[in-house]
Amino acid sequence: MTFQIKDSVAFVTGANRGIGKAILEALLANGAAKVYAAVRDVSSVEPLRQAHGDKVVALEIDLTRPETIAAAAGSASDVTLVVNNAGVLKAASALSDDAIESFQFEMNVNVYGLIRVAQAFAPVLKRNAAAGTGRAGAALVQLNSVASLTNFPDFATYSASKAASYSITQGLRAQLKPEGVDVVSVHPGPIDTDMATDAGLHEMAEPPSLVADAIVEALQNGQFHAFPDSMAVQIGQAYASFAENVIEAETEEAAAEA
């Protein structure tokens, strides 16, 4: 059974702009009953609340502060879909003077933040899946990157952090699937966001709506991997055989043994 977005209750980190905002709007357009917009500054959610009314609920969250994640999980106890979209990027190569500091910063958000979100929300998702709160179980979506599959030298530390988050996502899939919780790993290329602009990737960036649409499709079709944009599709096609025969096969086997 695949996850049904209609009537679901979602929780989206970094939902006030860019990809997160596109995801929130796509979920509502596909019938989500409510979306918690989890952001560091709750006042930034006000335009979304004005546009969508009570279907958008602002919650404070900072992926570097575990107490805010725990509090959000307590407040959003009706959630059936968690989308961990928030992430950071530093333009640092392995030989940059600030490579270690950049890597530590990215790991704290991109990897430890994912683990913190998963640990806080896995009990909520499992409970609501078992109780039938969601029409078809529950789901966790993690925004990874094409950089999780190949290292871009100018963004070496970011690529390494995303490779780690992708690995954690694989482990989460194997653990949560037997509990009725689907997991989706999303691998965008350059997307038209503030992050892409700051990284000098604006000219090749594509619309955030592509990511949102890919997430909707992956949830509806029970897919683990999602490759939204032109660069992502190209890399995804090259990666497809390994993904199917190694990554997805191993997690399916692990889920069956759990």
TrEMBL record:
Pfam families with a match to the protein in the record: adh_short
Entry annotated with the keyword RNA-binding: no
The UniProt record lists the keyword Oxidoreductase: yes
Keywords from the UniProt entry: Oxidoreductase
Tree of life domain: Bacteria
Family membership: Belongs to the short-chain dehydrogenases/reductases (SDR) family.
Protein name per UniProt: SDR family oxidoreductase
Organism: Roseiconus lacunae
